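Q&A log
Question type: sequence-to-structure
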Amino acid sequence: MKILAKTKDLSHEEWLKYRTQGIGGSDVSILAGINPFKSVHQLWLEKTGQVELEEGDTEYTHFGTLLEPIVRKEFTARTGIKVRQKHMILQSEEYPFMTANLDGTINDNGEMAIFEAKTASAFKQDIWEEGIPAPYILQIQHYMAVTGAKRTYIAAIVGGNHFYCHMMERDEEMIEKIILMEKHFWEENVLGGIEPVPDGSEATTNYFNSKFGHSNGETITLPEEVIPICEEYERLSKQLKDVETAKNAAGNQLKNYLKEAETGIVGNRKISWKQISKSSVDTKRLKTEKPDIYNDYLTQSQYRRLSVA
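Response status: OK
Response body:
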């Protein structure tokens, strides 16, 4: 590895510029399609300079940076392990498109280990109880690929009052897959200028629904290459409908066994069919009896529905 840039006196604008010169640790979960906030398409537009880099939730990022020294201090207090800060962006010499901006390093019995500090809301506590969240697993394996480190310590303050610390060893098989994924994206999509094929992730779905949220009413002729995509869409739609029908059939059979009972036990499974109370406004009656009030609170929302015929 080599030093791409020293960040201690780097301006925010310069730091953002370096972010577009390679693939960083936080980009890996986007490429893997497991980042709910940003799609591969958005990442491609940013890396190719077609749009400005989006930093996501700036409040979350701000307080994450603010609390990093506290996470680091708490880690040292609990483990006795000292963390050395790294004010630099590192770059892989073998794969120059891979970069790493580490929170710190550790002298681990004479070998360099990585330290990563995180903060999360209380809603993420169950995930941290189980171990390292998947996006961060990819991030730290990416960092170990860049640096050659054999292990990473990751510490997190969750909900402001829970501290978690995990250690992860270097996983050569995972690193190999990460490198192949990043290499393909960088060489074909970024350097080659080829637009990524949209995936089925939540982030990509949200991106296109937002980007093209309003139609212009026009009808256009699409290229022939769209035909197999239409066929795939139709096939999967039918398959989804068939699966939903089969699921409903299984559910109805279970209801028939339960009848008036609320809960049934079989083997190690508990089947529940509970009474749910739900309050709702009778809009039909409100519109008839109180039309002025109904109209005052009436709102309209628009969305686009995709169909293939």
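Response note: The mean pLDDT is 93.
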